[in-house]
Amino acid sequence: MVVFAGQGDARRSMALLWRAESPAGARTRRWPGPKPALSVAAIVDAGVAVADADGMAALSMRAVGERLGRTAMALYTYVPGKSELVDLMYDQVLAELPTDYELTPGWRAAVTCWAEDTWEFYLRHPWVLQVSQARPVLGPNEYRALETLLRLLYATELSSAVLRRVVGALFHFIRGAAQTVTESRQAAASTGVSDEEWWQARSGLLTEMVPDFAERFPLLVRLETEGAAPDPGDAVPYLEREARSTFDIGLAVILDGIDAAIQQGR
Q1: In the record, which residues are listed under signal peptide (predicted)?
Q2: Domain ranges of the chain
Q3: pLDDT digits over 175-211, tens only?
Q4: DSSP label at 5?
Q5: 135 conformational bin, left if phi > 0, alpha if psi -120 to 50, beta if neither
Q6: Considering only CA atoms, which of 134, 238, 227 is closest in space to residue 184?
Q7: CATH class of the structural domain 10-95
Q8: Are 148 and 113 in contact (CB under 8 A)?
């Protein structure tokens, strides 16, 4: 499921994101009785809670309203619709990302810490990975996250033209590795079949159906034979272990490439 940001009214969305103005009707109401008044912040918090618990597919104005003990119609005074809500949710959770990294140990250590924090962030909020990067939200926390990484990367003294691509490479890499973990978890939950059960059921059939597999795909067999990490014997599913290993080794290779570009420039 891919969700595109910025699908609601542009002016109202941007005003809500940046708190630049109070769109018409988006004010705090006073409700009779003991229930607290609604607010944009409360609605966004409830939306994040729904998406964290049940995924993006479960997100609706009705579901958010039910979580708040309100009707969906009561929410529209504060947030125009689901599209604007997604923008606000996405930008709000990005505020969890740290912005203060120590550069004294060097840019590489700082970027490694940043990457670890970003990885953990995606695993906490897997629905964020369903928000397409083709249409950025353009909110303050989205820009703050970029500004944080750029502060670390400009310490390399590489040119802006190079760093522009490095930023994209780092974000795409971390998102991709984290997505493997989140989709693996979603697959097991949705199908009731674990990764191990799925592979066991099919790997035996593959051997039966393609007895000359090793001859047809010798390099794949070599990769699996020589490159597979030993099973640590813990409860972490196979694909999650592979994704984490990919993250560790792939990040090191990317950082080595940045370091090589620095040395070449010197």
Answers
A1: none
A2: 10-95, 107-264
A3: 999 999 999 999 988 999 988 888 888 988 988 999 9
A4: S
A5: beta
A6: 238
A7: mainly alpha
A8: no
